[in-house]
Amino acid sequence: MREMKTIAQQLNVKEFPFIIKDKDGNLIYRENSNGWWCKSEYDSNGNRTYYEDSENFCEWMKFDSNGNRISYETSNGFWEKTEYDSNGNPIYYKNYDEYCWKAEYDSNGNQIYFENSNGYIEDNRPKGCEGKVVEIDGKKYKLTEV
Q1: In the prediction, which pLDDT does 129 show?
Q2: Could you say which of 20, 62, 63, 113 would form a disulfide bridge with 104 (CB–CB 3.0 to 4.6 Å)?
Q3: Are 53 and 36 in contact (CB under 8 A)?
């Protein structure tokens, strides 16, 4: 069986690394003098959506319309997915080994809640007025929700 030649070998390139970029300056092919190569593909927003190298390693990425990476997978079985709110804040994450987390943000984009599958919870959400005591004209009143 005849061995496949790399692009640089086919072109008889002698100077390395041999690099090809697309019209937007994104690296679409690279080859080193030892024959190792990698190639990438990009979406119309310049996000890398595919990667492959000469060692049979591949990556696939998907992005939402705001450029947030919503999924990532590799040829060795790793994967992760992320969801975002309308402000681009990550609100949910899950990966191949079932690790996941969720988050909430206030109107200023500050994270006010975080919980993960390991049981860790950080809750900084505003609390209601139930049970709070206020003083008006020297008298104390306990608030109750109606």
Answers
A1: 76
A2: 113
A3: yes
Rounded to whole angstroms, the Cα distance separating 53 from 38 reads 4
User: What proportions of the chain, in percent to the nearest 5, are helix, strand and coil?
Assistant: 5, 45, 50
Sequential DSSP letters for 112-134: EEEEETTS-EEE-PPP-STT-EE
Predicted confidence band of residue 142 (pLDDT cuts 50, 70, 90): confident
Determine the Cα–Cα distance for residues 81 and 119; give it in Å rounded to an integer: 20
Enter the tokens of residue 33: 């003098």
Q: For the segment 72-92, what is each residue's pLDDT rounded down to a tens digit?
A: 999 999 999 999 999 999 999
CB atoms within 10 A of CB 37: 19
10 Å CB burial of residue 127 (0-12, 13-18, 19+) is exposed
pLDDT mean over 63-73: 97
Amino acid identity, position 46: G
Is residue 28 pLDDT above 80, yes or no?
A: yes
Q: Where are the domains of the chain?
A: 1-59, 78-146
